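User: Hi! I'm a student and our assignment asks us to look at how structure tokens line up with a sequence. Could you show me two examples?

Assistant: Happy to help. In each example below, the sequence comes first and the structure tokens follow. Example one:
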Amino acid sequence: AVVSTQSTGPINVIKPRATKRFTYSQSAVLEEFFQKYGSARIVDRIALAQKLGLYKNDVIGWFQSRRRKERRATTGSNSYSKAGDQNSFGQSNNNVHIFSSGVR
């Protein structure tokens, strides 16, 4: 078999997006909306994006990050009774391995 070492065209490399920085006034409007309503419907996201001069996806990302922050704040870092009792998925950590032979 003949293997060609020449490229047939440019390689499409997906670069990670830069973190969007919101101005103080944009953050204040988004935070006020979040505190009042909790979530935003599609029409709300579009209206907020237009009002703040942002893309709809920026507003979507802001709400996702804000909900994640809210979940972290409500669960807290000490949500388990003893350290090591559960792993990061909330499962019991009793040294059972997926590929064990069944004999302990």
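Example two works the same way, sequence first and then tokens:
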Amino acid sequence: MSMIQFPTVSGSEAGRWCPDGSGEGFHINASSKTEETKSGNAAVPKEVTRLEPSEFAKSHPSGMTLDQRYDLVRSIGEECIQEDELMRLLNLRDAVCYDGFEPSGRMHIAQGIMKVLNVNKLTKSGCTFKFWIADWFALLNNKMGGDLKKIQNVGRYMIEVWKAVGMDMSKVEFLWCSEEINSKAGEYWSLVMDIACKNKLGRIVRCSQIMGRAETDDLAASQIFYPCMQAADIFFLKADICQLGMDQRKVNMLAREYCDASKRKHKPIILSHHMLMGLLQGQEKMSKSDPNSAIFMEDSESDVSTKLKKAYCPPGVVEGNPCLEYIKYVVLPWKDSFEVTRKEDNGGNKVYTVYEELESDYVSGALHPGDLKPALTKALNQMLQPVRDHFKNNADAKKLLDTIRKYKVTK
């Protein structure tokens, strides 16, 4: 089996699209070429290995080459553990991917648009995607005040949003945690108990970030149990790839460590997507309990406009700028372009297709927040319109949205 070594790069090269010799290419991401240490908390650079395609890969139903499928899947992750494992998996068979989500309130744009982008890439590459609707987990984490009926209504609302915005449902399964666990209780709880027995309490507490908690919080007993259950989900669902956010990294690493402890041969691959920051200054991530921190999927045009007018967007500053993040991770991947309309005196109209060019103009002052924000408002409103239309014109969806808007979001 022949292997080609692709070197890693850093600095200004990171994120660049590079040819692979077949007319296609791959994204370079300096932060992604990583290998976990024994602690699971640190990483060292690692080279990417390209493989000779198997017979399965050569005749894949997608019509894509192995490298093309790998590049498409890999482009989703800000980090991948491990890239060589991902390449070998895609060379042998189609993968099963999973993401679990707590139905905990209205859906913000990262969970909506960015998740659709990721799922559609994975299904296009041949993967099956399993959504684990974590209603019991939301109950354990006191979401919706611990009211299971409200939690399940929110779960149904979220599915409606994904359908409306354009998720390819042909290879997507929605599995309700409460139903699946009850139907195979012996299998599930045996896994949970084994994971609990093979880990110290301190290791489990370090996973509290996955629930939006800190290690220093006064955790309920249910929240101590939560990470053991989430790690068990991966094996219960027979998932090959954990496709969750960077905030879920610790529990995904716990699952890989469990494979060592239990002598399981195949470790789950971790493909962690970027976490979109909140709209206000200093907000590292969006919050469903703070309506001004994010654009929500059924926000009105005026809501979007008002929120973006208040959004942190200092002239010439890239770091910590949520408006630039929205363009980089939401608008450009969805629309392939970003159009700025302005007077000739201010530089005239311009269409950006490459984020780096837009960032360069912003830093130099050639693109001002006064022009960027209206353009971003227009782009996001265009993207969200199908969702608004769905909840306006579909009676059941409208009733569902009206119901959950009355719920109080609890942390």
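Here is something you could point out in your write-up. DSSP finds 16 helices and 14 strands in the chain.
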